[in-house]
Amino acid sequence: MFDPAQLAALAAVHRRGGFDLAAAELGITQSAISQRLRALEDSVGVLLIRRGSPSVATEAGLRLIRHHDEVALLARQVATELGAAPKGRAVLRVAVNADSLATWVIPALAAVEDVLFDLVIDDQDFSQDWLRRGEVVAAVTGHPGPLQGCDTLSLGALRYRATASPGFMARWFADGVTPDAVARAPALTFSDKDRLQAAWVQAEGLGSRMGFSSHRLASSQGFVDACLCGLGWGLNPEPLVDAHLRAGRLVELRPGRPLDVALHWQFARLTASTIRPLTQAMRQAARQVLRPPAEGM
């Protein structure tokens, strides 16, 4: 049997990246955090945290953090079923991609009462990794699964439009959207993990996945603003640019040639019942914005 206070200290150090921030979160001294973590490591006989800047959990530490999260959620569910008032609010750690957060996820979170959210923002091609490591209870991901110990629900597809300002088009694509023009015109890329622009370029036969220059700009709204100002072209979620396209402030590089990205809701099977209100809210919010799932998604 593990000491809950020691497990909480382990989780806080890993998630906040340091002993001082973990102490502030739990309302105890940094010395108490160190003592609890040392006692836990002594009891299991393995290193649980790699001290540094930031301090991160080892594989064994991640397994114990997942156990801590699961037990905390299940304990709240049992208390609720028995008619007892759970202590404090539940904290749900969820991985989500930035574009979903900017277009449809926030209303889903707002619909779930008495919960605090700890959101991990990562690309949809990588958010599943957080769930695989047990660092989150659920994830919005581009992967349909299967993932051991988890269930998957299809949410639909987020449609992207390759957009730029009219002035940018006149400057860089005066002779058409050709492979040579795409290679020269500056694009926008969210991060090194972002493959959307490259996937669209390749799908349109405009060059290789690495055949264009790009700004790095890690902001969904920043993408839209950068396109409006003529900084570059980029794949923007349709809900964020639809009004700009209709008003002529933005135009598509190739009209009627969108890119649809299928999204899925994956969650740990053990705690599925405890996060059911969130699952229902995510599915409802997704139906309002995403395109209906295609067969086989």
By secondary-structure content and strand pairing, the structural class works out as: alpha/beta
Q: Residue ranges: pLDDT <50 for 5 or more in a row? A: none
Sheet of most strands: 7 strands, mixed
Q: What is the gyration radius calculated from CA atoms?
A: 22 Å
Please give a structural write-up.
The structure is a single chain. The protein has 297 residues and is an alpha/beta fold. Among the domains are: 1-86, Arc Repressor Mutant, subunit A (Orthogonal Bundle); 158-260, D-Maltodextrin-Binding Protein, domain 2 (3-Layer(aba) Sandwich), CATH 3.40.190.10. 44% of the residues lie in helices and 20% in strands. It contains twelve helices and eleven strands. It has helices spanning 4-16, 19-26, 30-44, 59-81, 98-110, 127-132, 166-172, 179-184, 196-203, 220-228, 238-247, 276-289, and strands at residues 49-50, 56-57, 90-96, 115-121, 138-141, 150-164, 187-189, 214-216, 234-237, 251-252, 259-268. Strands 3, 4, 5, 6, 9, 10 and 11 form a seven-stranded mixed beta sheet that branches. It has a two-stranded antiparallel sheet with strand order 1-2. Strands 7-8 form a two-stranded parallel ribbon.
What's this entry about, in short?
This protein has helices at residues 4-16, 19-26, 30-44, 59-81, 98-110, 127-132, 166-172, 179-184, 196-203, 220-228, 238-247, 276-289, and strands at residues 49-50, 56-57, 90-96, 115-121, 138-141, 150-164, 187-189, 214-216, 234-237, 251-252, 259-268. It has 297 residues and is α/β, with parallel strands linked by helices.
